[in-house]
Amino acid sequence: MITLPADPAPADTALVCSAAVIGAGPAGLMAAERLAKAGYAPHVFDAMPTASRKFLMAGRGGLNLTHAEPLERFVTRYGDRRADLGAALTEFGPQELRDWVQGLGIETFVGSSERVFPTGMKAAPLLRAWLTRLQAAGGQLHTRHRWQGWDSAGGLSFATPNGRRRVQADVTVLALGGGSWARLGSDGAWIPLLAAAGIDTAPFAPSNCGFMVSWSPHLSTHFAGTPLKAITLSHTTHSQRGECMLTAYGLEGGALYALSPLLRDSIAAIGTATLNVDLCPDRPLAAVVAALAKPRGSQSMAGHLRRTLGLDGVKAALLREVLGTTLPHGTAALAAAIKALPLVLTATAPIDSAISTAGGVKFDALDQGLMVKTHPGLFCCGEMLDWEAPTGGYLLTACFATGALAGKSAAGWLQTTRPHH
Ligand SMILES: Cc1cc2nc3c(=O)[nH]c(=O)nc-3n(C[C@H](O)[C@H](O)[C@H](O)COP(=O)(O)OP(=O)(O)OC[C@H]3O[C@@H](n4cnc5c(N)ncnc54)[C@H](O)[C@@H]3O)c2cc1C
User: Fold this and answer.
1) CB 3.0 to 4.6 Å from 62: which of 121, 142, 281, 414, for a disulfide?
2) In angstroms, what is the C-alpha Rg of the chain?
C-alpha cells in the first residue's frame, strides 16, 4: 500500500497556488514532476483515496512500461495520432522513459516481443519511489478531492469529505484518464465539465477490448475461461498472431485487442465484424489439406483432426461451433475453415472492462504544448486525450510523454506570464 501525507482539507478553505494538477495517474504525476523541477511546487489532486490505482493495476499482470523497437516504428503504433503525439514522444520517448525509471533506482529489461518491464514487474516500488521524490521536490498530494468544474470566479471546485474546496491556480494541468475501469478512478465524468466549458471532446469508445459472440450454451458452459493458444486472428487485411481467451460472452485477450479498433469500427459501421481464426498458423493451407487427406481408416473425424493437426480441446470445439457437428467431408473446405474460421462479433464488451479508451479531448482543441487554445493556462495530458494505441507499453509511454510535455509547457507558461516568481 502506498502511504500518502495526510491532507486535512478543511471545509470551505480556499487554496491559492501557482500550479494545480488534477489526476494522480502516470500522466498527472509526470506533469507535476516537470513543474516541481521548474521550481513551481505543484498541488496534485485526485478523487480517489490513493494515487495511481490504474497504474498499480497495470502492474498486476507485469508492468509493460514501453517497447524497445526503433522510434520510427514505435510512433506508427499511434495511427492517425502519430503526428499529434510526435513532439511529446520525440522529447520523452521509450529510451527517455527507461532512463527516467532508472533514475528512480529501478532497472528495466527487454522481455518477450521487445516489451520493456521494470525488474520485479510491479508498479508499486516505482510509484513509491516516485511519490517520495515528488514530495521532496515540493509536490503536495491531495487525495479524496473530486474536481467538479470551475466556479463562477474561475476557481477550481472540488468535493472533499469535508465539504467543498476552492482552489485558485495560475496554471491547471488536467490528467483525468480515460473512461474504463471506473472503480480505479478514471470514470470519464469530466467529459460534460469540459464540454460545458466549450472544450471539444470525442465520445469515449473501448480500445484494447473484448467482443461479444453468440456462443452456443454448450461452448460457453464447457469452454468459458479457456485460452486459445497459438492462433492467428485476422480481420480484412490485418492479422495478429498470439492468443486470446474464450469467455462466456465472447472473446478477450491480447491478439484480439490488437485488432480491436478495426473490429469496433466495423461493428459501428455495419453492426457486426467478422474475425477469422487460423487454428493452425504454423502450417500453410496446402499442408493442412495434405494432412487431412491422409487415410483416416476407421478413426473418427475428431481423432483424425487430433492426430494429423493436433486440433483438440477448445480448438476442435470452436471448429464444430462454427461448422456444425457434421464437419464438411471435402478436405479443401475443411482445411479452408481451419485456416480461417469465421466468427461473427456482434458488439464490443462493455467499455468499463476495456484496457483503454479512445476518445477524449481533441488535439484540435490544444496547441503544440497541450494547452487548451480557448483557455490559456489550462493543459491536458494522458489517456484523456483523443488517441489510442495497442498494448505493448504504448499506452503508458504516451501518458508519460504527454504528461512531461504538458508539465513543461505549463512551467513555461508560468515563466512567461508570472516572470517574478
Ligand atoms: C488492467 C490494466 C492493465 C494495463 N496494463 C498496461 C500496461 O502493462 N502497459 C501500458 O502501457 N498500459 C497499461 N494499461 C493502461 C494504463 O494503465 C493507462 O493508459 C494509464 O494508467 C493512463 O494514465 P493517465 O495518467 O492518463 O490516467 P489514469 O491512470 O487513469 O489516472 C487518472 C486519475 O485521474 C483521477 N480522476 C479522474 N477524474 C477525476 C476528478 N473528477 N477529480 C479528481 N481526480 C480525478 C483518477 O482517480 C485517476 O487517479 C493497463 C490498463 C488496465 C486497466
Assistant:
1) 121
2) 25
Under the banding of pLDDT at 50, 70 and 90, the label for residue 268 is very high
pLDDT in tens, 18-41: 999 999 999 999 999 999 999 999
Question: Whose CA is closest to 5, among 102, 100, 135?
Answer: 135
Q: Is the dihedral of CA 259, 261, 266, 267 positive or negative?
A: positive
Q: What is the mean pLDDT of the chain?
A: 95
Q: How far is CA 133 from CA 101, 284, 396, in A?
A: 12, 54, 20
Dist. CA 280–CA 324, nearest whole Å: 19
What's the maximum distance between 2 C-alpha atoms anywhere in the chain?
Answer: 91
Report in angstroms the alpha-carbon separations of 291 from 210, 283, 396: 33, 10, 44
DSSP E strand stretches across 38-121: 43-45, 66-67, 108-110, 115-118
Residue 348, SS3?
strand
The CA 259 to ligand 1 mean position distance, Å, reads 21
Report residue 153 as a C-alpha cell.
470566479
Q: Is the CB of 94 under 6 A from ligand 1?
A: no
Which residues, including other chains, have CB under 8 Å from residue 96's CB and lie 6 or more apart? none
How far is C-alpha 217 from the geometric centre of its chain's CA atoms? 32
Residue 421 has pLDDT above 80, yes or no: no
* CA-to-CA separations, 225 to 221, 246, 252, in angstroms, rounded: 10, 6, 10
44 lines ligand 1 (CB under 6 A): no
Asked if residue 108 lies in contact with residue 102, where contact means CB atoms within 8 angstroms, the answer is: yes
